[in-house]
Amino acid sequence: MNKHLAIGALSACAFAALFATGRIEPPPVHAATDEQKKLAWAAVERNAEAIAALSDNIYYFAELGMQEHESAKLLTETLQSIGFRVRTGDAGFPTNVWAEWGSGSPRIAIVTEVDALPEGSQTPGSIERKPLIAGAPGHMEGHNAHAGVTVGAAYALKQVMERYKLPGTVAISYGPAEEQLVSRPFLVRAGLFKDIDAALLIHIGSTFGTGIGLMNYGAISAEFTFRGKTAHGAQNPWDGRDAVDAVVLMDAGVNALREHLRPTARAHRTITHGGIQPNIIADLGKIWWYVRDDTGPKTIENFNRVVKVAEGAAIMTSTTLSHEVVASAWPQLSNRSIAEVIQKNIDSVGTPVWSSEENDFARRFQKSVGVPEVGLATRAIPLGGRPQSFASNDNGDVTWVVPSGNFQFPASVPGVQYHNWVAAVTPTLSISHKGQVAGAKVLAATVLDLLTDPDLLKRAKAQFALDTKETKYFPMLPASAKPPLELNREMMEKYRPEMRKSYLNTKPAFR
User: Fold this and answer.
1) Is residue 272 a part of any domain in this protein?
2) Are β-strands 284-293 and 266-273 bridged in parallel, bridged antiparallel, or unpaired?
3) Are residues 274 and 125 in the same domain?
4) Does residue 51 form part of some domain?
5) Sheet of 218-227, strand order
């Protein structure tokens, strides 16, 4: 078997064999009591309005990656108000937020993000295209909902830990610019996760679900710059060296390369500088690529072949080439021992009870985008039923240095795809709010299990050692890489003054 495909994906027979040999012990009864979890869930339910207020505020901020200043400020203020210690600026990211409560071990980290996407502005609840501000950014993946889930769970955990005098530390990492796959490899490199015992990753979805093994794709984001020589396109084009020709040839070359890559490979691009006007031979051309595959090593291999194509394009056009890796991400590695606990908590919490109005809206929405009119999800995905996603998330690097579990919480409409304006319709509706409450309950319960069950952590660490035995983590991010502080600044400065008019006046108040 390919050693990379075997990572974290042991069969039931193989797992049973490990139990028999004593390499991994069978799971005992969890140490976190029903009473403790019920106290946490009651705190979440009591603060449902605060959870919604927090995530709704961040929806209207709609801040692009590296420019999450209002979001970071609100998160900092809210977390401090519930007793967490908060700092910003780690690893050179002004909008990176790291919050902690408690002391000592075990140290459990919650990992997520709150950034928006370009041109996603949309009036909440409107199935027809109706931007709040034409051309402005918007939350068309629902990352705003992550704030409500994480802070809601954090508040509940603090209540339980104080009541029962539970030792340990809860940390929350809000990494900037996830949509551009930027920050977590830098945070791992800076050592923020070196003392963490286990991590939990969350993401919005249309139903509850966790998984085992590789959960998404690795990716490398890089911009290729070609430089040539300008000339008049009619008078003396022979004197020019066309950098845009190099961009076009690279594009064609990568398309030819696809036939010779594994079926799992993905590559997509946008031309970021394509000349000035037709009669001027362009001396500058830029193209931005994402290169992906289902393992980290395959991703690196694909990227190196793409670089060779770029070098060939430069030779053919007598231009010079440079390239910069903007960001990178390993595929998420989900730990079986942690996933089993997440699944039990998902099953205990259950999918939200949807009203007839919510289901009717969902079906009308599904009809409008041409997907099956099935309404909202009524059951969770069974453990092992969630396939590896083709998408990527920069938090994958965390999962290769810390035993980690991840889950999606049900806060959007099935069939309505992200990275499209339609996904910005629901993140402030009751569908999202109910899903956030359910997600916060599962998150709080799972952190409690990790805090109170030493055997669970031992099993998770044993599983992690097994999963990473043959494939070891290495940074795909070059050592010379620095945080792209100017990323999205111009776009946010263009739209933020008008966007401020839609900001909410209400602030979250947890009690």
Assistant:
1) yes
2) antiparallel
3) no
4) yes
5) 266-273, 284-293, 218-227, 320-329
Cα→Cα distances 389→214, 218, 303, 331, 420, Å: 9, 10, 19, 9, 17
Number of domains observed in the structure of the chain: 2
Domain hosting residue 79, numbered range: 12-216+331-502
The two tokens of residue 200 are 């939990």
CATH classification of the domain holding 465: 3.40.630.10
Closest CA to 291 of 224, 226, 218, 225: 218
The DSSP code for 104 is: S
Spatial distance between the Cα atoms of 95 and 105, rounded to a whole number of angstroms:
27
Closest by CA to 126, choosing from 427, 503, 374, 501, is 427
- The answer to whether residues 385 and 148 touch, using CB atoms and an 8 Å cutoff, is no
Q: Percent of the chain having pLDDT more than 90?
A: 92
Tokens of 479: 């050592």
Average the pLDDT over 367-392 and give the result: 94
Q: Which two tokens stand for residue 110?
A: 């919650």
pLDDT tens for 137-190 read 999 999 999 999 999 999 999 999 999 999 999 999 999 999 999 999 999 999
134 with 282, same domain? no
Residue 231 sits in the same domain as residue 136: no
- Angstrom distance (rounded) from CA 36 to CA 28: 18
3-state SS, residue 259:
helix
The Cα 52–Cα 409 span in angstroms is 15
